[in-house]
Specification:
single chain, mainly alpha, globular
């Protein structure tokens, strides 16, 4: 029996975000070894632009859910939410350290594992868990802020985020600016935590009805125009600079932020859960609850498909190989996660 109070649009959004994250790491294959003037790079550039809202969507979903609840029980917050994420992070850091080193070599030389674990970036995609832990830690303060902030202050907050977060980061990534200007812009650099906190709060405000008067047609128009304009501009920059740049791909790039907000609102506007069957709702929840595991395991799955089956997207027509690989990796990771959730001990941390 499904929960009538559950917002299934967030489950759908979480699945979309997870597919996008898998897509990013699939479309980036061979990125820097391909000329930006080729057909292959042009297609990969479009897919990468398409998939980039994945992380901001994840952050906004978390903010929508977390900031809508009372977080004054610090013991529960740290004992349940933050500790659980900390354990998951530690387990997966060790997992990837061992897998990337090789089990036999890791057992023979355990110091190699410690060198990886204690390094500055033990596994590239696990940064998200560190960011989420930080956001959970300050969530009680953010909740007080969003609960007391009226629309006038919210608009002011968005303007600050747009100028010092999105605009600053977008301009900074453009390769044509002189070095002295880059240095001046860098003086106004803010912590990533502030930027992700903005997405965190933005998810709450969008869920509470902010911008609900914008039509689906307008949202789709803005989203598609931004998507194609960003892909085209990034392609032009890369071709002109003769370097496969990612100037417009950052989580705080203006196009990514616009696409993320449009997608968030579009999915939220389709909350016709009454029309969904019980089986469909159950399937949505099941897949949604496996997305964290999919996020954690998908680089390993991609790597194993390459090693054992020689499945490299760039070996085929990337227009078709990228989406097919994304589907394959997502399905394999989801099924694995669903099966492991049946294991009594593992289901506590997956």
């Amino acid at each position: 029996m499904t929960d009538r109070k559950r917002d299934y649009s967030l489950d759908l959004m979480r699945i979309i975000a997870c597919v996008m994250v898998v897509g990013i790491h699939t479309a980036m294959e061979g990125w820097y070894n391909i000329s930006p003037r080729t057909y292959t790079w042009t297609v990969l550039n479009f897919y990468d632009t398409l998939f980039r809202p994945g992380v901001p969507l994840f952050i906004m979903i978390s903010g929508s859910l977390f900031l809508s609840k009372d977080q004054s029980d610090f013991k529960r917050l740290w004992g349940k939410n933050i500790l659980r994420l900390g354990i998951i992070y530690a387990v997966w850091v060790v997992f990837y350290a061992v897998m990337n080193t090789g089990v036999k070599k890791a057992l023979a030389e355990p110091k190699l594992i410690w060198d990886i674990i204690s390094g500055p970036n033990p596994q590239y995609h696990l940064w998200y868990l560190r960011t989420l832990i930080n956001l959970y830690a300050i969530a009680p303060l953010l909740r007080l802020l969003v609960r007391s902030m009226d629309k006038r202050y919210f608009r002011y907050f968005l303007i600050l985020f747009a100028i010092f977060g999105l605009l600053r980061n977008t301009v900074y990534e453009l390769p044509f600016l002189p070095a002295w200007l880059h240095e001046q812009i860098n003086l106004f650099s803010g912590m990533d935590l502030v930027g992700y906190a903005a997405y965190f709060m933005l998810g709450y405000f969008l869920s509470e009805g902010s911008f609900s008067n914008i039509s689906r047609k307008a949202l789709w128009s803005v989203y598609l125009i931004t998507l194609f304009a960003a892909a085209g501009l990034n392609q032009w920059i890369a071709a002109a600079d003769d370097w496969p740049t990612q100037a417009l791909y950052g989580n705080f790039a203006i196009p990514v932020a616009i696409e993320s907000v449009c997608l968030f609102l579009l999915v939220r506007k389709n909350q016709k859960t009454d029309a969904l069957s019980e089986k469909t709702k159950h399937l949505l929840v099941t897949i949604s609850e496996s997305t964290l595991f999919v996020y954690l395991i998908h680089p390993f799955v991609i790597q194993r498909l390459q090693i054992y089956l020689n499945l490299y997207t760039i070996n085929y027509n990337v227009l078709f190989s990228v989406p097919l690989m994304v589907i394959l990796v997502f399905v394999l990771s989801s099924i694995t996660g669903m099966l492991l959730k049946r294991v009594p001990v593992l289901n506590k941390i997956l």
